[in-house]
């Protein structure tokens, strides 16, 4: 049997009523969608009735776009492997992408941990994007104090703002600023202007977002804190790995997101993680900002960011800005 290339996964998350299903339905009908398999917790929570063609396998339905939608029964890992086996056996159509739509109260970190560390899934799938749909109408007032909302925003590589036509410009700007404080590394897009998967495609680097001008340390009012560090000397890679491992071991439950673009002796390296889950380092060819500095962003709760900066500088013997 020919071994297939690892299937890219898009994790679609967002708080209750944010509009993630509305966006997903549009994206599935777009001409550029390609062959997509969607994994959901229950069909009843997903607005696909008008797209439904028929049942093609247990817990699996065919949509009029040619995509398939599968209901997760039990563990996510088993659902993914079962879906891939069905495709290989011709029981369901072949697919080129998997979209996992979470429940509105899901903390993405557990799903990301499964996708990253499971030894069987590791060679079968690859996480491509974490897309969080943020409700512009209710995000600032109703959701900001919910820890799940903050975790969803912090985990995102792309944030899609929904219902932007229902709020005045000044209120929308305020939410955009708040989202930028929680997750300064994510690309922030208007869901109405991004009707397809191609519109939200991200290489996971987002270099400019790492280097935009901002206060180096702050709290945004939701309980989330952000620390941004930059330095212009080559990185002691071994020392950094030891320091970061100690940080995650000690504060993993309070560490929402880590994103680093590093100038190491072996080239440019991207480090990306959520909670205890740290993805494998990626060596990049041309993503380094023009200043050649290393840039690090830490998002967490109940952390002493001044102490974190001091420990980083002392352990790595560097001065940060």
TrEMBL record:
Keywords: Chaperone, Hydrolase, Nucleotide-binding, Plasmid. The keyword Transferase does not apply. It holds the Pfam family cobW. It comes from the Bacteria. Residues 224-316 form the CobW C-terminal domain. It catalyses: GTP + H2O = GDP + phosphate + H(+). One of its GO terms (cellular component) is cytoplasm. GO terms for molecular function: hydrolase activity; nucleotide binding. Transmembrane segments: none annotated. CDD domains: CobW-like. Belongs to the SIMIBI class G3E GTPase family. ZNG1 subfamily. Zinc chaperone that directly transfers zinc cofactor to target proteins, thereby activating them. Zinc is transferred from the CXCC motif in the GTPase domain to the zinc binding site in target proteins in a process requiring GTP hydrolysis. This is CobW C-terminal domain-containing protein. It comes from Leisingera methylohalidivorans DSM 14336.
